[in-house]
Structures are given as structure tokens and as C-alpha cells.
Design brief:
The chain has one domain (13-76). 80% of the residues lie in helices and 0% in strands. It has 3 helices and no strands. It has helices spanning 6-34, 37-61, 66-76. The chain crosses the membrane at residues 12-31, 37-62.
């Protein structure tokens, strides 16, 4: 069995970090404009979930090109098997 590459293993972490950064930005904007901590935490949570779902859907929508299909086939059927 072929182990996934480091890039493949860190992809979910990248999505979580990007979603977290965007959620922190949204929460800070809400905090600076309303000065209400509870409201800014609500905006933070909603932004985190929405951005995470949108990014996950975009990742699922990407179709691999020819080179990626060949690479995936090589990973699924290693030489000698």
C-alpha cells in the first residue's frame, strides 16, 4: 500500500487554517463594529462553518487533469502488482 504524500495529509489542515483565518477576520470586524463579544463570537462561528463548507465543496468540485489521473492510477496500482 502506498502512503499518502505529505501534501495529501496536510490538505485538511490547510482548509481548517484558512477557514479559521477568515473566521477570525470576520469576528474581529464584528467586534470592532458592534463592541459586543457574544455577537462577534456568533459571527466567528458562523463564518468558520460557512467558509469550511464552501472550501470543502470547491475541493470536491475540482476534477483531476490528465497528469493527475495518471498519478492516481500509479498510486492505486503500484508496479509489480
Amino acid at each position: 500500500m502506498v502512503k499518502p504524500s505529505r501534501k495529501d495529509r496536510t490538505k485538511p489542515v490547510e482548509l481548517l487554517v484558512l477557514s479559521g483565518v477568515m473566521a477570525v477576520f470576520t469576528g474581529l470586524i464584528a467586534l470592532m463594529s458592534t463592541r459586543d463579544i457574544v455577537l462577534s463570537l456568533i459571527f466567528f462561528g458562523i463564518a468558520f462553518v460557512v467558509v469550511l463548507v464552501v472550501l470543502a465543496m470547491l475541493v470536491l468540485a475540482v476534477r483531476p487533469d490528465g497528469d493527475e489521473l495518471i498519478d492516481l492510477d500509479e498510486q492505486n496500482h503500484p508496479e509489480g502488482h
